[in-house]
Structures are given as structure tokens and as C-alpha cells.
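Example record

The entry below shows one chain as it appears in the dataset: sequence first, then C-alpha cells.
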Amino acid sequence: GASGALAKMDGVQAGGNSTMVYFACEDCATEESRVAAAGGSVIHPKFSIGQHGCISIVSDSEGNMIGLHSMQ
């Protein structure tokens, strides 16, 4: 049941440690709102990716970036 995609992101070079894992959620804004309290930071608040839903980019307390994806 896992899916994946390749995407180009401005400011991120291919190779090295450029892989980003996205976690599916009901509404990425809800999960995004919990990041600061857990010691992380919001890199890019929720934004639309057109017909593919919305994403948020956040980092954990060690600076590792992850993506949050939702259809709403």
C-alpha cells in the first residue's frame, strides 16, 4: 500500500541526503500545528500542490526535514 514519487524542489540538489519522506494525514495543517511543541520547526506552511492536495514541510528537533501530505 505504499506509494512514491520523484519531484524537483527549488533549493534542494539531487543526490546525497536529498530524499524526503512524506507522511499522509487527514489535514497536514493539523499535524503542522503540533511541530513546534515537539521541538521542531515549520519550514514551509501548508500549501496547495493543485489536484494532488496540499503539503507542509517541517523539521524535527535534530533538523531532519519531513513532508506532510493531505488531500484537503
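Notes for this example: The chain has a mean pLDDT of 89. DSSP finds one helix and four strands in the chain.
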